[in-house]
Amino acid sequence: MPFAPLSTLTTVPASIPSPPVSYFQIGPLTIRFYALCIIAGIVAAVLLTNHRLTKRGAEKWVVIDIAIIAVPLGIIGARIFHVLTHPDFYFGPGKNTWNPFEPGSVWAIWEGGIAIFGALLGGAVGAWLGCKWTGIRFWTFADALAPGLLLAQAMGRFGNWFNHELFGLPTDLPWGLEIESDNPAFPPGLAEGTLFHPTFLYEVLWNGLGVIVLLWAGAKLRLQWGKLFALYLVWYSAGRIVWESIRIDPSEIILGLRSNVWAAIIGVVVGIVIMIVQTRRHPGVELSPYVPGREPASADVQSQDYPSDFVDVSEPPATVEVE
């Protein structure tokens, strides 16, 4: 929806202004910056994942075959998770719950309202199906995706900035975020010109640093068999616990904590469990990104990252590998 011009805000030196508009028109078509940020993030993740999978020996652009299933299911999962954790937004008297042409309906994803933890669940199902289809190991794909996923999340957070949403507690820090006082999310009782923690920016910086850490860990520590994805879960979720704790937008509270804080805690635990289990199961390295017997004739089965004298000693040679 449109927002009041920032000229209505009290000028605060060194603060971060919110964008004056959240969309633009091309004829009858409304283009929202929120959607553009998400699309740009998806494209960046696909390109980086394709590069990493190809380097491991997979066919070029096999990532597209996986993405056409994983991306839609990820978006659906993200929306469902958001709706279920914010039921008061969509259900009850006077709500346009099921009307796809009215604002505030469960279908109005263009207004904002997707949750990364739901995207991870839905996207994981889609990725698993895509990997079954292409013959790529699921954990190989997950490891290749991990840095690109963080990059996509960093880019997508700019969509919240354009939407003037999901900001944090009031602050007097010089990088405080300006929010117009007539914004529905502006807390009642606060003075016009109050600044807020730019949680979108905190997450952008944290995720950007995480991309560097994951790329380094994958190359230097040879984290495979899902262990790099496990590191992603721990890194992202640990940061999310902090940023989520200072956000002031409405959320379901469970045992004193926001629902997304609990989701982030679960993310840390799941990441640690994956790291421990996969380290014990697979102390060696992956020699191929493909499930045995699914290698296409045109693919370089031997990983380009490791010499051929590396072997996975976690299972006897005669045992058929499982994903």
Automatic annotation (TrEMBL):
The lineage of its organism: Bacteria, Bacillati, Actinomycetota, Actinomycetes, Micrococcales. Residues 295-323 are annotated as: Disordered. It is an enzyme of class 2 (transferase). Pathway: Protein modification; lipoprotein biosynthesis (diacylglyceryl transfer). The chain crosses the membrane at residues 31-49, 61-84, 104-129, 136-156, 200-218, 225-243, 255-277. The keyword Nucleotide-binding does not apply. One of its GO terms (molecular function) is phosphatidylglycerol-prolipoprotein diacylglyceryl transferase activity. Its EC number is 2.5.1.145. It is found in: Cell membrane. The gene is lgt. It is a multi-pass membrane protein. It holds the Pfam family LGT. Catalyzes the transfer of the diacylglyceryl group from phosphatidylglycerol to the sulfhydryl group of the N-terminal cysteine of a prolipoprotein, the first step in the formation of mature lipoproteins. Keywords: Cell membrane, Membrane, Transferase, Transmembrane, Transmembrane helix. This is Phosphatidylglycerol--prolipoprotein diacylglyceryl transferase. Its main location: membrane. A 1,2-diacyl-sn-glycero-3-phospho-(1'-sn-glycerol) binds at residue 157. Coiled coil: none annotated. Belongs to the Lgt family. It comes from Microbacterium bandirmense.
